[in-house]
Amino acid sequence: MQIKNINLSAVPAIGVGGIVFNNQNQVLIIRRNQPPAMGLWSIPGGKLEAGESLAIACKREFKEETGLDIEVKNIVAVVERRIEGFHYVIIDFLALLIDQECAEPIAQSDVAEAKWINLVQLDDYEVVEGLTEIISRTYSLSRGDCLAGLYAADAAATDYILSVFG
After folding, report:
1. Residues 6, 89, 38, CA angle at the centre, nearest 5°?
2. Across-strand partners of 162?
3. Which residue out of 104, 113, 126, 133 is catalytically annotated?
4. Residue 162 pLDDT > 90, yes or no?
5. Closest CA to 31 of 55, 57, 56, 65
6. Is residue 6 part of a domain?
7. Does the keyword Transmembrane apply (predicted)?
8. Do 62 and 18 meet the contact criterion of CB atoms below 8 Å apart?
């Protein structure tokens, strides 16, 4: 199988993203102002830094891009993207706002805009590949009684495993 438009010299990097819903059942999205996917809408997130855990990276990136604090929960998606000379493996987390009362995002860092939108509005935005489905499934998971995804196996949140309850 041949993959087109791949920069074989691009070193794979690990990225994280946080999917957050507010009390009005809206999702927080950001518009990127840097490559890759500049101009497209996504969720807050970015690159893992050396020595950082996945959960800490997600919290840091979310704060840097929106000014909001989150509690990182379970892993809801793992995607691989090779675009514009970049190669990322991205781990997306369901996250919760720490303070629902102070939930107005402020676009910062490499973000042009940050805003809450209703899920039915997602189709009105040019979002990064695959994100609409991930957000929809994560919303269903977050509002239901079922447990799904990968959960931190310990307090250090360095290992994620399936939770099985019987």
Report:
1. 65
2. 150
3. 113
4. no
5. 65
6. no
7. no
8. yes
Say what the pTM is. Answer: 0.88
How many domains does the chain contain in total? 1
| Catalytic-residue membership of 52 | no
Closest to 81 in 3D by CA, of 130, 134, 31: 130
Q: Which residue segment(s) compose the domain that 141 sits in?
A: 13-162
Rg (CA), the chain: 16
Answer yes or no: is 7 within a domain: no
Residue 134 in any domain: the answer is: yes
- CATH number of the domain to which 145 belongs: 3.90.79.10
| In-domain check, residue 4 | no
pLDDT in tens, 35-59: 999 999 999 999 999 999 999 999 9
The token duo for 154 is 């310990």
